[in-house]
Amino acid sequence: MSAITDERRPDDPSVPDDASTPPGGRPGRDALRQMGSPHRARNVKDVIARVVMWFCFFLAMVPLVWILWTVISKGAHLLGSMQWWTGNQRNINSDDAGGGARHAIEGTLQMVGMTALIAVPIGIFTAVYLVEYGRGRLAKAISFTVDILSGVPSIVAALFIYAVWVTTFGLSRSGFAAALALVLLMIPVVVRSTEEMLKLVPNELREAAYALGVPKWVTVVKVVLRTAFSGIITGVLLGIARVMGETAPLLILAPYTKNFQRDLFNGNFPTLPMMINQDRGDFALATAAERMWAAALTLIILVLLLNIIGRVIAYFGSVKK
Amino acid sequence: MAKRIDVNDLNVYYGSFKAVEGVSMTVEPRSVTAFIGPSGCGKSTFLRTLNRMHEVIPGGRVEGKVMLDDQDLYAPSMDPVTVRRTIGMVFQRPNPFPTMSIYDNVAAGLRLNGVKNKKTLDGIVESSLKGANLWTEVKDRLNKPGAGLSGGQQQRLCIARAIAVQPQVLLMDEPCSALDPISTLAIEDLINELKSEFTIVIVTHNMQQAARVSDRTAFFNLKATGEPGRLIEIDDTTRIFNNPSEQATEDYISGRFG
Predict the structure, then answer these.
(1) B118-153 burial by CB neighbour count: b if 16+ within 10 A, else e?
(2) Does domain B5-94+169-254 have CATH number 3.30.300.20?
(3) Which positions fall inside the ABC transporter domain (chain B) (predicted)?
(4) What are the extents of the domains in chain B?
(5) How large is the ipTM?
(6) With contacts defined as CB-CB under 8 Å, which chain B residues touch A209?
(7) Distance (Å, rounded) from C-alpha B83 to C-alpha B36?
(8) What's the distance, Cα to Cα, between the start and end of chain A in Å?
(9) CATH top-level class of A102-317
(10) Which of A49, A1, A3, A48 is nearest to A25 (CA)?
């Protein structure tokens, strides 16, 4: 009691005198009225914070909705035709309408599939090493390298692969060469997200497994990776989404073709970003512009579908309560 | 089943910091030994050296000898995984595997070590859950997640999981400190039953608990923070609580410090 009164300045009019605060601690009516003012101030701050957050939320939504609206309104009707999903662009000139995107859809999926096939194991193993095994200098060096790799612009990754694949080894440009460049872009995303997920697994679970006489590698595979499974899937999907729309490596390493091309290792290779790029060249023609928007919408839908599939997998593999 | 543990002049380190110094004791088979003492005196650290869990922590190491009957647990040829299979552990906070059902949690130790036979697993799961006094409560929902049980049930599930691999010794690191009194009572009853089969070592902050469940009690203390913890004395529980030989023990028991 006295400790509180000592801190009050006697000349402060806002401080009620001791008579209004009966001994025993319950504040008197004056004291209660005093308590109203910080409460009101807090309410005001609360309202301001709410308004700011809502405003920022809407600001962030504007470009998203805008993009979706533009792409859907300008490209959706081509997606309604069967030909879009079954045909290719062979013998279709810029001033011809429609045509198919099947070649580019297949190409993108094939290329991204190859990318994931290479990048996901490397990324996950690296993350497991960093979180479960790595100590000291080597781990720090790897972690630092991953940081640098995640900052490498896609065109630089593409030039690097070009220098190695085409200039040094004398191999031709191909879908696979582009996939290699995408691998460089995907690895750091997978490593970082997997690392975060593994760190979230409580240490008690590892200890529980060790205490049952389970070897460390079994603990990592069956307990740690299993517990982090849904998070890892999400990370992998983020990585795939990141590389699916990459265009720079394709420009340099995988020239576009309007035909079906299922050979990833030889010749030109069709992909959705390159199809968009192709039609962008003749943007002035309504037929090409329309095709460009439709291809863009198709790419968005592919990413969306992958996300949904990933979420379903993650849901069935997630921690149940 | 149960085995004796002999510890001889054990020092425990975290990196260069000596956390526990010069502990020698014998833990009798088929009995409950309780470790008591103020916080930070090294009881849990010492407990974790008994099944080589201490070395899981980076920088953790020990000097000295721990014998399980006639096996040297820290012999270079000894595999820590084997040690932990023989000496099980229950932790302070219940830690069932969140991705696994009740059944899978109990079967985890066996399954992760390669036992696949469904009949064997069924039998061991049932006997372990019965052994942990949990069977009647969960027998109709063995496929429900283990994390959905109450705290006390989860801790008994962890005990069932630990005894399912049929260890010789069961180490318990403050197994009731996160539980309410009724769950605590259930665990204490369980400890009383388990001691007919296992050698049990329990760390507890609760002196009444030590008095209730243990046959022998070891008192740990440290001179000051930053100094290593030491074993002050170990004796029959009744003697420690009624007529200890050391003044420090008496001071701690009677609540003069700690």
Answers:
(1) eeebeebbbbbbebbbbbebbeeebeebbbebeebb
(2) no
(3) 5-247
(4) 5-94+169-254
(5) 0.90
(6) 97, 108, 112
(7) 24
(8) 48
(9) mainly alpha
(10) A1
The DSSP symbol for B40 reads T
Cα–Cα distance, B26 to B12 (Å, whole number): 17
Biggest CA pair distance of chain A? 96
**What are the φ/ψ torsions at residue A27 (nearest 5 degrees)?**
-70, 150
- For B165, residues 6+ apart whose C-beta sits below 8 A from its C-beta are A212, A213, B85, B88, B109, B110, B113
Rounded to 5 degrees, φ, ψ at B30 are 50, 45
pTM: 0.83
Q: Helix, strand, or coil here: B14?
A: strand
B95 CB within 8 Å of a chain A CB: yes
CA B172 to chain A, closest CA, distance in angstroms equals 11
Contacts of A231 in chain B (CB under 8 A): none
Chain A residues with beta carbon closer than 8 angstroms to that of B85: 212-213
Q: Which of A218, A227, A320 sits opposite B112 (nearest CB)?
A: A218
Q: Tokens representing A304?
A: 């969306």
Query: Quick one: closest CA in B to A133, which residue?
Result: B58
What residues in B contact A230, CB-CB < 8 Å? none
Cβ-nearest to B91 among A204, A213, A223 = A204
B81 touches chain A (CB under 8 A): yes
Residue of B nearest to A228 (CA): B99
Question: Within 10 Å of residue A1's Cβ, how many Cβ atoms?
Answer: 10
Q: Which helix (H) or strand (E) holds A157?
A: helix A154-161
Q: Which residue of B has its CA nearest to A201?
A: B98
> Half-sphere exposure of residue A196, counting CA atoms within 13 Å on the CB side?
12
Tokens coding A192: 């970082």
- Test B108 with A320 for CB contact under 8 angstroms: no
Judge whether A202 is closer than 8 Å to chain B, CB to CB: yes
Q: For residue range B218-248, what is the model confidence (pLDDT) as tens digits?
A: 999 988 888 899 999 999 999 999 999 999 9
Give the H or E element holding residue B10.
strand B5-14
CATH 1.10.3720.10 in chain A is located at: 102-317
**At which residue do the structure tokens 């609580």 appear?**
B241
- Per residue in A155-171, pLDDT tens? 999 999 999 999 999 99
Q: Is A218 on the interface with B (CB under 8 A)?
A: yes
Residues A99 and A303: their CA atoms lie apart, in Å, by 22
